[in-house]
Amino acid sequence: MNKIILPILFVVLYGSGFVATKYGLPYSSPLSFLTLRFFIAGTLFALAVAMFKLPIPKIKEAMHIAIAGLLTVATFSIGVFVSIDLGLSPALSAMIIALQPILVGVLAVQLAQEKINIYGWIGLFLGFIGVFFIVFQSVDVKSAGILSVVMSAVGLLGLSFGNLYQKKFCADMHVITGGSIQSSVSAVACLLLLLLFDDFDVVWHSEFIVALLYMSIGVSLGTLSLLYIMISRQEVNKVASVFYLVPVSAAITNYLLYDEIFDIYTIMGSLVILVSVYLINKGKKI
Fold first, then answer.
1. Cα atoms in the Cβ-side hemisphere of radius 13 Å centred on 198
2. Helix, strand, coil shares of the chain as percentages rounded to 5?
3. What distance in Å separates the CA atoms of residue 48 and residue 58, rounded to the nearest whole number?
4. Over the range 21-55, which residues count as b (16 or more CB within 10 Å of their CB) and which as e?
5. What is the residue-level pLDDT of the chain in tens, covering all 286 positions?
């Protein structure tokens, strides 16, 4: 049952995070938003560690956890937030991130010695086609500029290599202590970049506060914990397949909050994605 419930919760929270980003960025610079988000998340994780007297990992293990966090949490988030701030549509950013299952699938074979069956490869490419259907009408690279696309690609690489690193070196990581370390190092990384390249810029509007709390608690605490639990229990390429469902979740959240209407592309893409995730998780390894 957990193999079904955990991915569903992850997709719902993660997909809605794209909408929360859109909701909060008009009132803050990306690095200011992320510094506050990770500081809040790291503090809450640390309080939980102290409250429940959880064991602190040894230095070597903590270093691996920190590196995985800098990739999966900091690099991914910075890439996506900056790309959207530069003008890239959340839909196109989601499409770039949706390459993650294919990239992880290829890298998992080379680096993690995982095997992908024929159903898996078919599912990987069907999933990308499904995402393409969903974002087909909103792709506009020229207006955003090439740098915005590059930043989303940076986020894609951070997430992909981070998931593989997490699986290889941090599979036994405690979710709460690991989350504390990863959120804290991500907060420090964002703060350093903020001090070097930007100014702290926040308008404390109610919409920003709602978005910040949702991204700090719902996404940083919720989705990352779910992601690491799934990585520790399953092959990393199968975990990556759920990212295909994120644009579907984002589309539904957009509909509920902004009354955006489902078009034929969204419906067709969602159906293709559901088939792709089924195929990726089907059959024996070869």
1. 17
2. 80, 0, 15
3. 18
4. bbbbbebbbbbbbbbbbbbbbbebbbebbeeeeee
5. 556 788 888 888 877 887 788 789 999 999 999 999 999 999 999 999 999 999 999 999 999 999 999 999 999 999 999 988 888 777 677 777 877 777 777 776 656 556 667 777 787 778 778 777 766 655 555 566 778 888 988 998 999 899 889 888 998 899 899 999 999 999 999 999 999 998 999 999 999 999 999 999 988 898 888 887 887 776 666 676 777 777 677 667 766 766 666 667 767 777 787 787 777 666 444 3
The amino acid sitting at 202 is V
Backbone angles phi, psi at 89, to 5 degrees: -70, 145
- Within 10 angstroms of residue 108's Cβ, the number of other Cβ atoms is 23
Whole-angstrom Cα distance, residue 181 to residue 187?
10
- Cα dist from 34 to 26, 109, 186, whole Å: 14, 33, 9
* Ramachandran angles phi, psi of 284, nearest 5°: -90, 155
Rounded Cα distance between 166 and 168, Å, is 6
The secondary structure of 109-139, three-state, reads HHHCCCCCCHHHHHHHHHHHHHHHHHHHHHC
Structure tokens, 229: 């639990």
Per DSSP, the three-state class of 202 is strand
Our measurement of the distance from residue 177's CA atom to the centroid of its chain's CA atoms, rounded to an integer in Å, reads: 19
Cα–Cα dist 194/85, whole Å: 15
Q: Which residues of 218-250 are buried (b: 16+ CB within 10 A; e: fewer)?
A: bbbbbbbbbbbbbbeebbbbbbbbbbbbbbbbb
